[in-house]
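Task: sequence design from structure.
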């Protein structure tokens, strides 16, 4: 295990700055996820750590060594790619042991390492097969096995599940999580899928346009997003972001929405009367009132997504749209008028101008 320190890294391609003063610390044995939309720079940062790209500015340390100018083979890392990158003419065993053979390791030692990794990944019955005889999930496990046998200081994963179908993604995701628990190797994982980030990451780095927007534990990002972008990127279904103005009545504060609805907010938010804000309401923190005259947001149901275990209800009225999510079934129909009631204690609040999270104090 070894720490990875990315210190003020910048990367330019010609006159275009794609990575801008990024600093990330990954502790020994930690599983860190880099997440962001396409073009955010997450894969470029991974390639900089791997040595596949050279940093324009800044420094990278792995296991206490400055590796900024070292070639990939001297960085003690192993990378798992999106496209398995298996040699089609080689068996599973040969693919897994290829890098060890190139390093000059003895055949008996290679066989031992391959056998141990294959057993760990439940590939021990497939060692004589060619890649074309394997499923997508099995091929990705071979790719991971090829990394494991090298016993690196750091594992680097570049969107390894993106070529798998939904069922296989869930299965292999669980295998990667289990693998990390057993090996405890420092791991950095790139994805655009926030479900992967939330379920795998001990630390998540949210990126946008080559900059770090927020770094934290999964539930910290979910409960306390630093800005509107992070709030909208973390969470499924996406958070409802509603524009409004702060109304103050004595010690009571509320946000007045465009339709005239008043949504109470916690007194600890540092806001002033008439301040323009963005109110963040997560779909799972909304309920439908039992009484039509209840205090809340009156809307009409426009669409229902029912998966059996989950129910997502899309609602709207002129100038306002809401998505509510439930774990239990509801007797609701498209076209029905309902009143949505938020859990006021779980609302997020952002300044309309800066889009930053409004400061909160528990002393209020």
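Answer:
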């Amino acid at each position: 295990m070894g720490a990875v320190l990315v210190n003020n890294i910048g990367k330019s391609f010609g006159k275009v700055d794609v990575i801008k003063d990024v600093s990330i610390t990954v502790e020994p044995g930690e599983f860190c996820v880099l997440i962001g939309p396409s073009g955010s720079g997450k894969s470029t940062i991974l390639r900089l750590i791997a040595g596949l790209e050279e940093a324009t500015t800044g420094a990278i340390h792995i296991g206490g060594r400055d590796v900024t100018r070292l070639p990939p083979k001297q960085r003690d890392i192993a990378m798992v790619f999106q496209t398995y990158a298996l040699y089609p003419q080689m068996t599973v065993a040969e693919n897994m042991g290829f890098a060890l053979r190139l390093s000059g390791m003895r055949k008996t030692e290679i066989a031992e390492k391959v056998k141990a990794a294959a057993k760990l990944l439940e590939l021990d019955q497939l060692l004589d097969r060619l890649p074309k005889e394997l499923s997508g999930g099995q091929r990705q496990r071979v790719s991971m096995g090829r990394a494991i046998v090298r016993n690196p200081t750091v594992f680097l994963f570049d969107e390894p599940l993106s070529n798998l179908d939904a069922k296989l993604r869930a299965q292999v995701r669980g295998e990667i999580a289990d693998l990390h628990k057993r090996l405890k190797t420092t791991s950095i994982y790139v994805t655009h899928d926030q479900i992967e980030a939330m379920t795998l990451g001990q630390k998540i780095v949210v990126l946008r346009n080559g900059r770090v927007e927020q770094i934290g534990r999964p539930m910290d990002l979910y409960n306390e997003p630093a800005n509107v972008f992070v709030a909208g990127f973390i969470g499924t279904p996406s958070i409802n972001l509603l524009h409004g103005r702060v109304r103050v009545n004595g010690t009571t504060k509320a946000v007045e929405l465009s339709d005239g609805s008043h949504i109470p907010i916690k007194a600890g938010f540092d806001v002033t009367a008439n301040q323009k804000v963005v109110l963040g309401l997560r779909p799972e923190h909304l309920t439908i009132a039992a009484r039509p005259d209840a205090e809340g947001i009156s809307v009409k149901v426009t669409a229902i997504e029912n998966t059996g275990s989950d129910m997502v209800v899309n609602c709207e009225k002129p100038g306002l749209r809401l998505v509510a999510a439930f774990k239990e079934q509801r007797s609701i129909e498209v076209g029905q008028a309902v009143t949505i009631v938020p859990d006021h204690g779980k609302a997020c609040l952002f300044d309309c101008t800066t889009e930053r999270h409004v400061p909160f104090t528990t002393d209020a």
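The chain has a mean pLDDT of 93.
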